[in-house]
Specification:
Helices cover about 45% and strands about 20% of the residues. It has a single domain, classed as Transcriptional coactivator/pterin dehydratase (Gyrase A, domain 2, 2-Layer Sandwich), CATH 3.30.1360. It is built from 3 helices and 4 strands, in the order αββαββα. The chain starts with 7 loop residues before the first helix and ends with a helix. With about 100 residues, the protein is α+β, with helices and mostly antiparallel strands. It catalyses: (4aS,6R)-4a-hydroxy-L-erythro-5,6,7,8-tetrahydrobiopterin = (6R)-L-erythro-6,7-dihydrobiopterin + H2O. It is an enzyme of class 4 (lyase). Keywords: Lyase. One of its GO terms (molecular function) is 4-alpha-hydroxytetrahydrobiopterin dehydratase activity.
Length: about 100
């Protein structure tokens, strides 16, 4: 499947849909889809990262992220289109699912 860079109106619409869930607070920062997840402890944060890593590998779409104790900061961008694509919003949605199950 080929992905294309989303237009600004498409990004706004996708972001609004993604954030329609009260627990979701994604923002656009530095032209990237960005969120910081907070967990009860390191074990939960690392478990979340493990689930996300397996999903990201399956989808061949890898996040820019970092972990400090119970926080995981994520930035998503589709490098080969030099911007945001549906791939980023799909991964963000799945990350929210994993975070709610952690």
């Amino acid at each position: 499947m080929t992905y294309q860079k989303l237009t600004s109106p498409d990004i706004e619409s996708a972001l609004e849909q993604l954030n329609s869930n009260a627990a979701s607070h994604w923002v656009i920062e530095d032209s990237k889809l960005t969120k910081t997840f907070e967990f009860r402890n390191f074990q939960q944060a690392f478990g979340f990262m493990t689930m996300c890593a397996l999903y990201a590998e399956k989808k061949d779409h890898h996040p820019e992220w970092s972990n400090v104790y119970n926080k995981v900061s994520v930035q998503l961008i589709t490098h080969y289109v030099a911007g945001l694509s549906d791939k980023d919003f799909d991964l963000a949605k799945q990350m929210d699912v994993f975070a709610n199950g952690a």
